[in-house]
Amino acid sequence: MPEKMLFNYETTYRTDFRDGKLESSVKTIFIPKVKKPRNEPIPLKDIQALFPLRDPHVPFNLFHQPTPIIRTTPLVMQKRYEKPVDDMRLEVQKTRPKVVMAPALSMDQVEEPTRQTIVDFVYKSTVRKALDEAVELIHKEKKLRAPLVDKYAPARPVTIRSSKLPYVSPEWRMPSASWDKKQIRTYTQPTRTFWLSRELERCVPCEQTAAVLAHRKLICEQQTSK
């Protein structure tokens, strides 16, 4: 009787598995996080006057100063440079005094654009020329053409130095000549010559085979003689 009251002849399916439904004992509840107000920044004070600054954040350009020589500042945008037109240049070139020593050339007497070409050839650096050519290739404003010359460049013949045999002293020539005379100048098979020049080692199986064949031959001769 106590056994029936305790177990009641039932299994765990009655309480553990209920038609496939799984119910959690503790339900998850979403609790929003409480937002705390941000603390106000500590006001900065002037080092000398010890008075709070109006702006609590230090400006980025506080210590920006113009450069000492060219006096440029990042706060002021640089204006675009445009080369001014010089209207008096041609008149000054024609009227100023000239002192020219032959065979020098007076640049003031050369007409444009030949004068500018001479100036660029004399004073323009190689880096500047390469930069101008690169800009022309990018913008495709001018077509670069290599200058064609009427005369070909003089030929530069290539001469090959004759190779001479190294010099051998006379006291070394006789031993080398005597050794060279002893060498055989005919066709030969080095492998065949090497193995034939060596003495053959004793071959025990070969000797046994030869003895067996000789014994058989002797028996055959005795049988035929009878």
Explained architecture:
The structure is a single chain. This protein has 226 residues and is mainly alpha-helical. The chain has a domain at 111-138. It has helices at residues 2-7, 89-95, 114-123, 126-139, 170-181, 190-196, 204-225. The N and C termini lie far apart (120 Å). The model has no long low-confidence stretch (mean pLDDT 77).
Secondary-structure blueprint:
Elements: H1 2-7, H2 89-95, H3 114-123, H4 126-139, H5 170-181, H6 190-196, H7 204-225
List keywords for this structure.
226 residues; mainly alpha; 0% strand
Helix content range:
25-40%
Low-confidence blocks of residues: none
Report the average pLDDT across residues.
Answer: 77
Task: Report the C-alpha radius of gyration, rounded.
Answer: 56 Å
Q: Give the terminus-to-terminus CA distance.
A: 120 Å
| Class from helix and strand fractions | mainly alpha
General shape = flat
Main sheet attributes: strand count, strand direction, barrel closure: none
Q: Quote the beta fraction.
A: under 5%
* Helix-strand pattern: HHHHHHH
The total strand number stands at 0
Oligomer: single chain
